[in-house]
Amino acid sequence: MNVRKKLKRLIAMVVCAVMVLGCTMVVQAADLGSASYNDLNPYKGNLKGQCTWYVWGRTHEKLGISLNSKNRWGNASSWYDRASADGYAVGTTPQANSIMVWTGGAYGYGHVAFVEAVNGDRISISEGNYDGAYHEETNTIAGFNRRYSMDSSGNKYPQTVKGFIYLQNTSVPVSLTWSGDRCEPDSSNVFVYTEAHTNISGSFTEAGITMWDESGNVVASKSENPARTGTQLNIYYNVTDELGVVLKSGTNYTYQFYTVFNGTKYTTDVKSFRTKGMAENSWTQELNIADWTYGEAPNAPTAAAKYGTPSFTYSSEKNGTYTAEVPQAAGTCYVKATVAAVNDQYTGLEAVKEFQINKANPEYSVPQDLTMIYSNRLESVTLPEGFTWYDSTELSGPVGEKIAYAFYTPADTDNYNVVEMIEIPITVQAKDLSGMKLEGIDKNTDLDKYEIKDGDTVLVKDQDYVISSETKGDTVTVTVEFKGNYTGKTQTSYSLKTTDNSTDKDKDTVEKESDAPKTGDSSTFTMWAAMLVLAGGAVVVAARKRKFNR
Known about the structure:
With about 550 residues, this protein is an alpha+beta fold.
């Protein structure tokens, strides 16, 4: 009895396991190496590995159906509507052996998967390119609506289940054609007409038109519900009366009709027309011209118009007379672009643009081998024609190489620039002070303190000169040799021997002085000492005389 109970329990567990596995796993795993995924698969090229590649292969492998026979289903997000247009039944109820379609996601590509089984509200799918790989999953529609895909930057974009494409028991394919086109424009309005015809009777639930100008901007659109059932729908519009749009005369427009039949949208080819009258011309490329420099080849102006080819003329005044002659002289100039109007075609255009012919830099040679004397000013140096010192009062600076700055003014200042701050090399030479008079030097002169000047400049001993003296007999010769920023040599001499006149003068001076010696006066002290010696001598002589007289 226990054995039977255990066997029944085991059989129940196995049945439950089979039921569960049947609803959560693919019964027949995909053979990705088969021809369905390779040679026969139209997505085997760059799209191999994508969800559309896998679903095509799985559908062919399992059901023998080649999808997308018209090769126009596009991205996964478009499969629902494109399959419906090709005659496949679509809906929102999940069925085994159908295709689940998502919209949204990164870049709006959407996603598709093959429905392997359905159990209540749980759907088992197999798919390709889920996180870049083959994938199986069982979930509810609500669960599948929580999916998302990411772009290259990692941003997440939600995906939404749109419905299912039913691959078995398909209905008769729908065929819709367009005919009876009419387009009747005038200068500011147009009447357009078309007819939609289907091979089966059905419901037209939406119809309308979109109209664009030459730049691709929508100028008119209309959507409405014709609420018509049958195989034909006529669509027509008076653009001004029904869409409230006034068109431009002489202008090209494009338009397209559409309708929604049995839930599928159909569109006509894009058609075009031109309104009557002269088109309003405009610049498609604004007038422009680049500046150039005098002596260079002139730059050509550029401009382009919606209609016609512009011609160019020039003037030195904005409101002056314009001619075809291209200006040559430096200065402010103007160019005019003109498009002549053509009757019954387009209006004329005119535009003016200012530009510059810049002055050129003149050619010149930097003066070389210029010299100047130390302590002189630049004005003492003569420059070639056209050159002017930046500061003619600038002093030479020390002996050696010097850089001074000058302007160069060309003869033609209308077309050439004045060049500023040109570096000019100058050799500063030592100033020759040979023959300078050395005044006031005698035996009482302290040569170390003797002051020598160059004008108002006091020269520095041992830096600017060396001074020495030489005595020969009664004559002293003083020599000054200049150095550094100076050159040359000069001499003076004086005698150590006093003249008779000077001696008599000294005697007279002594006689006039006080008899008392003065402190620090060695000559007076010497005189008194001599007088004392003479007086002493006189006393000794007198004493001796007295002795002998006895």
